[in-house]
Amino acid sequence: MTRAISRRTFLRGTVGGAAISVGLPLLDCFLTGNGDALADGGALPVRFGTWFWGCGMNPDRWIPAVEGPDYELSPELQALAPVKQHVNVISGLNTILDGRANYPHSTGILANITGTVSGTEGGVSAPSVDVLISREIGKTTRFRSIEMAATGRPTQTYSIESEAVRNASAVSPLELYSRIFGAGFADPNAGSFVPDPRLVLRRSALSAIKDDVARLESRLGSHDRQRLDQYLTAIRQLELQLDVSLSGPPDLDACRKPPAPRGEDLGTDLPQTQATHEMMTELLVFALLCDQTRVFNMLFSWSLSELRLPGAEINHHQLTHDEGVDQDLGYQPRATEFALASMDALAGFVARLAAEPEGAGSLLDSCLVMAHSDSSFAKSHDVNKIPFLTAGRAGGRIRTGLHVALPGEPASRMGLTMQQVMGLQVGDWGTGSMQVNRPIDAILA
Fold first, then answer.
1. Which of 84, 263, 286, 364 is the most exposed place for a label (fewest CB within 10 A)?
2. What is the CA radius of gyration of the chain?
């Protein structure tokens, strides 16, 4: 066996005359014997991402009663029980307005990701924190960042370069598949992609690269061959799932066949969004494993959350306003269903990253994910007690399994902490009362 294999090795082939490239995960041959650094002496890549859900939560049911590592999950955080050890809950942070207007579902999120409260609705005067981080750690990857929205609308994004430039979200798993395995970058707003993802799916990217796979396997040890086989098998399973999403149901005598689908089943019905989110998460895993990006933004629902239960006429956002607070329960039960579904989706996202082995640990171990919303209690558009969570250890830079309460502190402390953990040389961040110079020390390792 030889270790003279580049970390940047790609398996290549063609489908229908179009180039296909499949990156490789971190195999043993790329790592030191301990699996905690690259064989050339470099550090394992550390990734940053955001995960957003709209219309907040019920503070009294979301914020844990006790601080520190021994806290009990609150009613609205119960879905996180399987991943509690990977997560930090950060409560009590406020968007401090300094007398400016609170534009509903806009001011809180934009101020918290840019450190500046705008004087206009939807206005921004600084890049979002993910953009600042991607400028530092995204220089050597194929994509500086990848934005995804599970709701089917590319304009729903909180990755902001400037007042005039917002990074559009990928909304189609097929589109994202094409970007990851295709020959080059595909604009999320473009109407065509090369190669045609449907052709790639039915021929399989793996069939195109089989000769390259055989050559590589001859140079790998037994454990790396096993890891490569598992990785390629997972890609094929994902291809089959995507292919199924393009097909109608089986033509059974007992089944009334609906009209043929025009494409993917995208939308804001909760099951649609959940399925898209799961598929996007799976594709993101491959993009991270192959170091095609080190920065990502996943939007589960927009700040004006349009999620709805199948057949329902009223969506999540409208429920937060129209539904009364149940006097016995003390909260809005129908609107709260979506808050619970959001935490369930976040738990699934974290669990998937934690389940993927990488080096001596997991993919999640080398990630720092900031999960957040636009408000706390959406009925009153409250931008105090904004919910934040982190997931992952950022390569050992972050402690996890904690509840940290910071009542009344500026929400911009999260953005400053994220930047410093990711290696940016920034001592203070934000403007006005949102200007801060203290990271959240309690979660720093």
1. 263
2. 22
